[in-house]
């Protein structure tokens, strides 16, 4: 902003903007009370203008917050004070309140950008991006569009290098992998605008590149005892248990992605050849999996004795009415969480033990058995061995702790 506002003026502007954005009454009351303390602290210290250093000192003295909240995780219980201080800094720098990364259904496109956003969505669909991938891509893009709208940018052709630079500053607190994804999304969209003549200049060239290469984290894996204990702890005497047992076997022994399990159709179960043939939602590749002995009996038990009576073409259904397939946003994390707790399995701090970790375990087990990376890539549905190569980082000791025997994966019993 051209003229630097005093702290009181800045607070007044921020509160007015929060009201314009229709923040809830109780939320606004919380902001007002907090900013009164900020103004009083500034007056006591003789500070006229807001600065990041002033914000950090306020949090340190009033909340005993000493972390660098741009680089470190925000302490539990301090997210609201930190968020409110950061809003002052954001508004002073950009003149807008930066949206937090919160998904909002039914996004309303600003009218000045609606035409190109719709065209971009159509192009992504024509390129056969998965629904989940497209949804994530558009979600990232909408934050940038909101930023432009709040900055009163009236057309895509008015986007400048300075605006892009200012926006990039706002994503600095994110994890470097998130930053990379946001920058890629932004670069691709701006390139699309130029190629389709929505902008006179290729602004994708103005998007900065990360200088630090991202090294993917080593995937979490299960140990053999915990996987067995979890599977054995499932109550297969009730319909929900029969369904969940079949799902967990498909993930842990075949490495099928959750999205593909949700979209698995009855017609894709090839009983004569003892195979499952699916078109992977992420890669669009057609993949054939063997119906191993225990997987086959688990599926039969579920289909004959547990699956609700329904005309749905999908294998796995909800167990409460209406009896239909899982929702598009369901990640089935509650299933593995439920049985982890029932089996009294302790999850080490920092470990991610979701359904995807069972895929990691399968990959690591196959690697330990000497399976070539290209073969593991094919089993897991990776487009290249590059994605699979991160399992090499687990090390021999880590591999020895990996979980289940995938029964040779290619062998039918």
From TrEMBL:
Domain Core-binding (CB), chain residue ranges per copy: 111-194
GO biological process, one term: DNA recombination
Domain Tyr recombinase: 217-404
Species this protein is from: Anaerobacillus isosaccharinicus
Pfam families per record: Phage_integrase (PF00589)
Similarity field: Belongs to the 'phage' integrase family.
Molecular function as annotated in GO: DNA binding
Name listed for the protein in its UniProt record: Site-specific integrase
InterPro entries tied to this protein: CB, DNA_brk_join_enz, Integrase-like_cat_sf, Integrase_catalytic, Integrase_recombinase_N, Tyrosine_recombinase_XerCD
Alphabetical UniProt keywords: DNA recombination, DNA-binding
């Amino acid at each position: 902003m051209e003229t630097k506002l005093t702290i009181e003026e800045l607070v007044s502007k921020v509160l007015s903007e929060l009201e314009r954005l229709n923040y809830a009454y109780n939320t606004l009351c919380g902001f007002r009370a907090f900013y009164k303390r900020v103004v009083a602290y500034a007056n006591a210290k003789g500070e006229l203008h807001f600065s990041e250093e002033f914000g950090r000192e306020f949090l340190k003295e009033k909340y005993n917050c000493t972390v660098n909240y741009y680089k470190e995780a925000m302490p539990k219980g301090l997210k609201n004070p930190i968020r409110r201080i950061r809003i002052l800094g954001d508004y002073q720098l950009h003149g807008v309140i930066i949206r937090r990364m919160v998904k909002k259904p039914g996004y309303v496109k600003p009218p000045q950008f609606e035409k190109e956003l719709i065209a971009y969505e159509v192009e992504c669909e024509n390129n056969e991006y998965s629904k989940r991938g497209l949804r994530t891509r558009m979600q990232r893009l909408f934050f940038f569009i909101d930023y432009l709208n709040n900055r009163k940018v009236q057309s895509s052709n008015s986007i400048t290098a300075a605006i892009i630079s200012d926006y990039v500053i706002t994503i600095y607190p994110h994890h470097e992998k998130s930053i990379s994804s946001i920058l890629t999304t932004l670069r691709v969209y701006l390139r699309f605008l130029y190629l389709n003549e929505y902008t006179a200049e290729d602004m994708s060239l103005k998007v900065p590149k990360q200088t630090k290469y991202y090294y993917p984290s080593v995937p979490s894996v299960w140990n053999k005892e915990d996987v067995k204990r979890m599977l054995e702890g499932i109550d297969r005497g009730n319909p929900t248990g029969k369904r969940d047992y079949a799902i967990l076997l498909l993930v842990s022994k075949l490495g099928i992605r959750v999205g593909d399990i949700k979209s698995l159709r009855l017609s894709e179960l090839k009983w004569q050849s003892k195979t499952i043939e699916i078109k992977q939602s992420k890669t669009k590749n057609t993949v054939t999996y063997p119906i191993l002995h225990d997987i086959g009996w688990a599926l039969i038990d579920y289909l004959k004795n547990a699956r609700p009576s329904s005309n749905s073409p999908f294998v796995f259904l909800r167990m409460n009415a209406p009896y239909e397939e899982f929702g598009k946003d369901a990640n089935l994390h509650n299933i593995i969480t439920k049985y982890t707790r029932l089996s009294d399995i302790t999850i080490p701090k920092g470990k991610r033990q979701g359904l995807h970790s069972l895929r990691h375990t399968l990959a690591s087990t196959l690697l330990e058995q000497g399976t070539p990376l290209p073969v593991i890539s094919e089993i897991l549905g990776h487009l290249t061995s590059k994605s699979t190569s991160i399992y090499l980082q687990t090390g021999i000791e880590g591999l020895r702790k990996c979980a289940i025997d995938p029964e040779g994966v290619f062998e039918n019993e």
